[in-house]
Design brief:
Length: 407
């Protein structure tokens, strides 16, 4: 038997088919503890949970956890695959939640031999992924808020955004809090600027005179209008948002490092050249710790989107960028690869060779990331940290460099 669930925020539609495609039962449950208990109970009456796989368009969540706890194999399916399947099977274009549940169950029935059941991560990985992804989301929110602040300043006071290099930095936010409008900074001179920098612990290497020169060199700010008061309120509001985001990100940095230290595979990823704690945590959170989840390093490379997609038909052959992937994973593994080329001679050579073949920087970084995936895979499977002395390509480069030096 095969079960399909159409997930929704309030109610879930459920459909169970037999091996011939005949509907055994179809019902709906509420998104609640009672609804989950009802689902597990009704499915248990049909037979052994281990023999009743469940397909759903979500790889996580409390409903998925409840099904796994009950012993059902859970098969996550892609929403776009279900949409394409429904469009091919339901020619009328009709759509409903019970109908989608039936389509998902039918998709599972006919393609279960090609689909992979969900392999749940350990609690340590899930905890690490939670804090890492939340931190990444907050950084994206900070970028959006800083862009809003820059746009606001550009509209009425361009000089304020030119004083310090980063408008999100504490010193820049302190400056905008003290001087939120051009009029408030009219009496700002070199002595006051110096005192301000000392008071707020400015750690930059630019003297107060240079900072003031940046402020004065920009176009004159807006003054003497009602709009200035509104812009001041907007600036102070965005400054408050950025302060809160900076503090939250700093707190999550500590949480990420703490959870990384508790993870059994942490030493593997932190041993990579210039990985850093945050970068290593980002890669580990997306890579996971379930050895049964991947067939080999090629599966990891495909999931992270660092290998292209080839489309061939007759004489037509196109190799294109892989869009369907875990984009967080791609960002994490590419960041790690980019950092590694500054510390590893082997990584620097792989990158340089890719550039020499005509690859641009992003493409060369993906080539290097693909090479690192093979190395990390072996370390991950063997449960050993990365050791340059045991890496054949790195050892060979070191020996060649030593021979050239002696010659």
């Amino acid at each position: 038997m095969f079960c399909g669930i159409d997930w929704a925020s309030q109610r879930h539609a459920v459909c169970v088919l037999d091996d011939a495609g005949k509907t055994i039962t179809a019902f709906q449950i509420a998104h609640s503890a009672d609804g989950f208990d009802q689902l597990v109970s009704r499915l248990r009456r049909l037979g052994d949970p281990a023999g009743l796989p469940v397909a759903i368009e979500r790889p996580d969540g409390r409903l998925v956890d409840r099904l796994l706890e009950a012993g059902h194999p859970v098969v996550p399916v892609q929403s776009n695959a279900i949409k394409a399947w429904r469009d091919a099977e339901v020619l009328s274009g009709a759509k409903s939640d019970p109908g989608d549940a039936a389509v998902i169950a039918e998709y599972l029935r006919l393609r279960h031999h090609r689909l992979r059941p969900l392999q749940p991560f350990s609690p340590q990985t899930r905890a690490l992924r939670t804090v890492v992804r939340t931190r990444d989301d907050l950084i994206a929110a900070r970028v959006a808020a800083s862009n809003q602040l820059l746009a606001c300043l550009e509209a009425f006071w361009p000089g304020a955004k030119a004083v310090f290099a980063d408008v999100c930095s504490p010193i820049a936010l302190d400056f905008l809090t003290r001087y939120p409008t051009p009029e408030s900074a009219q009496q700002l001179g070199e002595r006051r600027m110096t005192a301000f920098c000392v008071k707020h612990g400015y750690s930059g290497r630019r003297p107060a005179a240079e900072l003031l020169a940046r402020l004065r060199a920009a176009p004159a700010g807006l003054a003497g209008t009602v709009e200035v008061d509104a812009r001041r309120d907007a600036v102070l509001a965005l400054v408050g948002v950025l302060r809160a985001l900076n503090q939250s990100i700093k707190d999550l940095d500590r949480s990420v490092v703490a959870h990384l230290g508790e993870h059994p595979d942490a030493e593997i990823f932190t041993s990579l050249p210039r990985s850093g704690r945050i970068s290593a945590a980002q890669v580990l959170a997306e890579w996971g710790d379930c050895r049964q989840a991947y067939d080999g390093p090629d599966a990891v490379a495909a999931l992270s989107g660092i290998v292209p997609v080839t489309k061939a038909s007759g004489k037509h052959r196109v190799v294109s960028f892989r869009w369907a992937c875990n984009k967080r994973f791609r960002q994490a593994i590419c960041t790690l690869a980019d950092n590694s080329r500054h510390a590893s001679p082997w990584a620097a050579k792989v990158y340089a060779d890719a550039i020499a073949r005509g690859c641009d920087h992003p493409h060369a970084i993906r080539v290097l990331a693909r090479a690192w995936v093979r190395v990390i895979w072996r370390c991950w499977i063997d449960h050993v940290p990365y050791d340059p002395a045991k890496h054949g390509a790195t050892r060979k480069l070191t020996e060649m460099a030593a021979s050239a030096g002696q010659g």
